[in-house]
Amino acid sequence: MPTSRTTARTELRIEDPRALRALAHPARQRIISELYAGETLTATEAAKLVGLTPSATSYHLRALEKWGVAVRDAPGDDGRERPWRSAADSITVLPTAHRRAGLDASRTSVHAWLGDLEDGLERLTASVAQGREQGMTSRGRLWLTPDEERQLRERLGEAVADLRGRTRRDHPAGATPYDVFALILPADES
Which intervals hold domain HTH arsR-type (predicted)? Predict the structure, then answer.
């Protein structure tokens, strides 16, 4: 059974457009997904996930460290590789980073993230085709004031935060991993 976190939740807020560009690399996106899901990974473990050599993966981990996204734990007494973990509980790229990075860099970053969403939708389709009743998609339109939109974002974040902290090494018996995507997108008003 996982231990419950009693510390305050932290959020890494990306404002620098150079950080946004650095995060857009597909291997880094995959590593970020794992680290911010609560996993702790060595460069060798991360390399297996992204299909690169441990050396190339170390380069990407150091780039994430440069932008404050990942941190290295102290090496153990056994001299093995040092594990990497997220620098915060969650990561948010602010609209200012997207604006200042420019349309092309912003689009590249968003499309890297959407690739993970497309992969997840493929897994959901396969799961449903096999008769499983897990996972969901939902779509609708809400007319919200700016304050209501902010409140909705906060409430969704709180619901997800309540279940964070579980990892592949530390989760309740019978738990399976789910990727959770929350999108609140401006609609076409025409």
Answer: 8-103
